[in-house]
Design a protein that fits this description.
The complex is a heterodimer of chains A (113) and B (123). The mean pLDDT of chain A is 97. The N and C termini of chain A lie far apart (36 Å). The radius of gyration of chain A is 13 Å and the shape is globular. Chain A has 113 residues and is mainly β. Chain A has no helices and 13 strands. Chain B has 123 residues and is mainly beta. Chain B is globular. The mean pLDDT of chain B is 95. The chains are: A mainly beta (113), B mainly beta (123). Chains A and B meet through strand 7 and strand 12 of A and strand 8 and strand 9 of B.
Chain lengths: 113, 123
């Protein structure tokens, strides 16, 4: 199985500041045949199910605010929130879908400083 | 707008079978991989398995010997059965729509998700 490791485990950022969450895979999730990275990001607010934010490493799901962006390639990926809002407090997960079984990172808890 | 809702009988005793059903509204079951994902209390996410409208399934290797996912096209539902449960199977079980990545075997990303159903395994 591909192991996904996120850093940091928790993060506190001031309102309006930038938040950055990292995700590293144990092997590349990039396919040169279609130039795509098989990586998704999810947001899970307390007491709610996860919500898809980004797939193909950088494609925002419909309705997701443009302050959320994904970047990276190969084994190293980043989720950035450009200007943190109070409603962004959540746990964020990355997930690879390059190989079966699909696997998730352990999660990063984002709080307000 | 597609919505998913899990339903099930509640707590399960050790060694018995966990059964859950996911009812999908606002979308056909065709064209996607309908998935189960679980989350033990206070912990991360674990993929359980998926099924498509042809009945093609794939399961987590760690659960394959105990899990069956089935589909009911007429009822727009799909179901999970997990046999011989232990306390380690206690979790919130989510159903989710999986989008096809095009790999072989198929892998998926997940969205939207149901609200989840907490299943406790206890005597």
């Amino acid at each position: 199985d591909i192991v996904m490791v996120q850093s940091p485990d928790s993060l506190a950022v001031s309102l309006g500041e930038r938040a950055t969450i990292n995700c590293k895979s144990s092997q590349s999730v990039f396919y040169s045949s279609n130039n795509k990275n098989y990586l998704a990001w999810y947001q899970q607010k307390p007491g709610q199910p996860p919500k898809l934010l980004i797939y193909w490493a950088s494609t925002r799901e419909s309705g997701v605010p443009d302050r959320f962006s994904g970047s990276g390639s190969g084994t190293d990926f980043t989720l950035s929130i450009s200007s943190l809002q109070a409603e962004d407090v959540a746990v964020y997960y990355c997930q690879q879908y390059s190989n079966t079984p699909p696997t998730f990172g352990q999660g990063t808890k984002l709080e307000i400083k | 707008q597609v919505q998913l809702r899990e339903s099930g009988p509640g707590p399960v005793k050790p060694s018995e079978t966990l059964s859950l059903t996911c009812t999908v509204s606002g979308d056909s079951l065709s064209g996607y991989y309908w998935s189960w994902i679980r989350q033990p209390p206070g912990r991360g996410l674990e993929w359980v398995g998926y099924i498509n409208h042809y009945g093609t399934t794939d399961y987590s290797p760690s659960l394959r010997s105990r899990v069956t996912i089935s589909i009911d096209m007429s009822g727009n539902q799909f179901s999970l059965r997990l046999r011989s449960v232990t306390a380690a199977d206690t979790a919130v079980y989510y159903c989710a729509r999986g989008s096809d990545s095009g790999t072989s075997p198929r892998t998926v990303w997940f969205g939207p998700w149901g609200q989840g159903s907490l299943v406790s395994v206890s005597s």
